[in-house]
Amino acid sequence: MKERGRLPVGWLGAAALAASVTGHAQTALVDPIPETIAKGDIVLEAVPFVRAPRTTDPAKPGRTNDAYARIQYLLPVPGEAGRLAFNDIRGVLYMTDMRAAEPVVYLDLRTAGVAFYNDRFPNEAGFMGFAFHPEFATEGAPGFGKLYTAFSARPGSGTADYAPEGAVQHSVLLEWTASDPAAGAFEGAMREVLRVGQFESNHNVGTIAFNPTAEPGSAEYGLLYICLGDGGRAHDPRDYGQRLDEPLGAIIRIDPLDTADGKSYGIPADNPFVDEEDVAPEIWAYGLRHPQQFSWDRNGRMFIGEIGQDRIEEVNIGVRGANYGWRLREGMFATGHAVGRQPSPVFPRPAEDPEPFHYPVAQYDHDEGFAIGGGYVYEGSDVPELLGKYLFTEFPRGRLLAIDTADLTPGEPTEITELRLQFDGQERDLADVAGFRNTYTNGLRVDARLGIDHNGELYLLTKGDGWIRKLVSTRERSDHATITWLLRRRWEPCEDGSTTVLGEDCEACPEGMACADVPATD
Hints:
Blueprint: H1 11-20, E1 39-51, E2 71-76, E3 83-88, E4 92-97, E5 104-108, E6 127-132, E7 146-153, E8 169-178, E9 188-198, E10 205-210, E11 224-228, E12 250-254, E13 283-286, E14 293-296, E15 302-306, E16 312-317, E17 329-330, E18 333-335, H2 336-339, E19 346-347, E20 362-365, E21 372-377, E22 389-394, E23 399-404, E24 417-423, E25 426-427, H3 430-434, E26 436-437, E27 444-445, E28 448-452, E29 458-462, E30 467-473, H4 480-488, E31 491-493, E32 499-501
C-alpha cells in the first residue's frame, strides 16, 4: 500500500498518533450528539403505488429476517415510456411505470447463470444495485440497451480483479446489452466488467449510478460510479478505509464502455489517483465504511449516505479525492482506533488531523436511530414544501428525515428534522404500518428506502411489507380521487402553455387552475 505521507495505519499506529496529541482527552463520549431530532411541520401522505411480489431467502443463517420483499431502489428507465425499475436484493429486477402498472420480472439473477449468491447473509448480500446507461434508449449510441447490475457472487465463480485474502464472496459488476430496450423482459448478451473479493458477507457493493447531470460530450458523461463497503465484519479489521491499494471502503469511477485493447473497462484520466503507484486507479473518494447509497442533485452535488458503526450516521457531500476518515473518524468524532482505545465508542477529535478529512454536513447518533438509508434532494413539483430538501431514511425504524441543502458546509452539521407521515389520512409511524420482527434487537424493523421517478417525485420502499408508496402533499390534495390522479399523471409542457399526458394531445388548462393541477383523463 502507498502511504502518501500518512502516519502508519492500524491500532498501533493510531495509538502512536493519540500519544502525540498533547492534552487530548481519551474519555469516551456517552452521548456524542445530545440534540434530538424533532418532528417538523411537514406532513406527507404515503399512498400505495405498487407492491412487489413476495420472495424468500435461499437460506436462513443467524439474524436473517423475514422481509416480505427486499426491495432496495426504484429508478426511472431512460426513454419516453415512463417506465420505472426496482430491485429486490434477493435477485430480481422488476419493471413498472408511472401509472403503477403491475410489476413484471425484467431480469432474474437467480436463474441467469451468474453464480448469484446471498446464502451467507441474505439481509445484506445479493442484488445490491443497478444502473441504466443514459443512452439505454438511444438507438445507435454506444450505450444503447446497456444495463449494469451489481451483486454478490459465489467465491470461485470467477477471477477477481481485486482479491483480498480469504474471500467468502465476490461483489460483481455485469453489463447486459438488451437487443430490444423497450421489451418487457430482458433478452440479449452479458459480459463481466469488474469483480472484487469480499472477506466477509456484509458491507458489499451498493449503489451504482451515472451522474444524471453530465452533458453528452462532456468528460463526465457515461462514467459509472460504484460504492464499495470496507469489506465486512465490524470496525474495519483490515483498515481498508484508509488504504488505497484496493478499492474497498471507497466510491470508484470507471468508464464501462472503454474496452479498447481487451480491457473490461477504462480508467478516467481525471480520477484523482490515476498516476500514483500502488494505488487502485478506480478510486474516486475513500475513507468510507459503508456508503450504500448516493445520488446527485440537479446542481451536480453528490450526496452520500454513510452507514456508521456503533455511534454515528452521516450525510456527506461527494468530493473528488476526498478522504472521509473511516476508520479513524466516525462522523465528527474520533474512533477508538484513532486514540489507542477499544474501537467501539467515539471520542473527541484530536486538535489536528493526521491528514485532511472531509467531514459530514449532517449526522445523528444511535439515540435517534440506526443505519442511514441515503436518499435524494427533492426537485419535483408535486410537493413544493419539500423543494431543496435532502430526504433520507433511518431505515431500520423507518424514520423519514430531511435537511435543507441551501447552505451546507462540511464539518458544520446542519439540523435534521423528521417528516410526518399519513396513511389513509391518519398520521402514523411507519413501523406501525410496515414493521416486521427485528432479528437484531427488540421491537419492529421497517427497512425503509427511497426511490425516485422521471419527474423527481419520491417514493417510500418498505421491505417489511413489500410496498412502494408515493409521497404526496397533504396540504391541498388530500381526497382519494385527487391522490389517485396524482399517482397516474405525468404532465409535460406544450409550447402554447397547455399540457400533455404521457404523449397524449395537449389540453388547455381550465380557468383558475395551473397546468400542473389539471387532473388527467383516462
